[in-house]
Amino acid sequence: MKNFSYARPTSIHQAIELAATSDVMILAGGTELLNWARIGIAEPSKLVDITGVAGLEGIEELPNGVVRIGALTKLNDVALHPLIRKSYPVLSTSILKAASAQIRNLATIGGNPLQRVRCPYFRADEPTQCNKRTPRSGCAALHGLNEKHAIFGWTEDCVAVQPSDPAAALAALDALFVTQSKQGGRRIPATTFHTLPSESPTAHNVLQQGEVIAWIELGEAAPKSAYLKIRERESYEFATVSAAVALEMEGPVIQRARIALGSVAMRPWRLVETEGRLAGLRSDSPEIMLAMKAGFADAKPLSMNRYKIQLAQNTAVRAIEMAVQA
Amino acid sequence: MDDPQKTRKEFSRRTLLKGGAIAAVTGLSGMSEAIAPAAAPDSPFVSHANITLVINGVSRRVEVEPRSTLLDVLRERLYLTGTKKGCNRGECGACTVHLDGRRVNGCLVLAIAADGKKIETIEGLANGDQLHPMQQAFIDQDAFQCGYCTSGQIMSAVACVAEGHTGSNSEIREWMSGNICRCSAYPQIVAAVNAVAKRNA
Questions:
Q1: Residue A311 belongs to a domain with what CATH number?
Q2: String of b and e for B133-150 (b: at least 16 CB within 10 Å)?
């Protein structure tokens, strides 16, 4: 790891001031950033450690019903919080299925969605063809090892997927990332927080230099929600595919469904067409699978990952069943 | 070399390292209290710092570069080599320690970011010659072969019990999944965690 200098501001204003120049990276839990620095994915010359910034940790319910999660709240603390378990089980489960107990004690809810792709070419110890690692160098995964890669929204410039479990849950919940920066700050929908390669093959998300996630806001409670993660081993592994589902039911009838797939695209993939077709269906209707397939009309497999289409459909249907039971 | 007693005395790595630790800490005790600035005197960025880590109840001062991890400082600066370096990428759990009472991967924490915090390592578990119940349970249940992951397993297991994630074998397995054992002693590790959890219940 190349050396860097280090600052530990205590206020958000100091933090965004210090982080404004391009040689600075922001450190929170560090579970990703330290590995980027080791591998050479990032070589910051300055780190701004925001873990000492006051007011960015904890969970509170605002008078208008919005639940506000401080970006520095540790993953385990979000997942095990009684309000999150009760009102947003999809978020709680997605977190508990992520990483390990130790990592979840370090990693933060604001930092987790900033994790970068797990593509082996991006993570290689020696730089290889990867537009995210070395802009305009090409994409080795396009015709290479791509069995874990995208089935939605990819281009020939990048076929990787965003692996964050919580990000999929936040997208299904229509959460907002509330940022602070010298320009003031933004409220960014979780559904468009990550950058598709058609927008920019090199970018990972829409955050700008010096822009800090301060809070994540959740809207109305989603007690009938669930997260299903499918992977090659039961625990401590990234998803092959995952599905975050939030339902509103009236008796046995689905009134509204929100579904975000994880690890199928460079952003959590909302199945908008499926969501529309599910409204009005009984939860045990055989038409649910038909509605699901309709959401995959624009799915496009790579050479090694055709299996992910059916796997993702089955995963999402099972997650709907789990949400009905929630 | 023929005298085994003498050999042990001269070449015991632990003895050597204990001596080194005392020398290192003594050597640093006279250094500046303040965090050293990197460039301009008023810059908030530092390129090295004297930090304090409260390790197993003992306050230790050490000078570090910002890039030094807690794991490396424990092992290479303070000679607390009970904490193991496996993957150095947060994938294996061999470096598990408790930071302010919570289990974390020592390789994923910058030492400078842990300034002033409490750290518990495997060296702090036993009370003199009296092993911690989890250490004894690992022996009783035969929960290791090569032993390389064991420090991390035990630190994680102590936390797992304290957190109350021991309701079933599958819950223990889930909450112990951050510790990889290449000898695959998992059934025995689960048995050890279970034994301590049951005793505490």
A1: 3.30.465.10
A2: bbbebbeebebbeeebbb
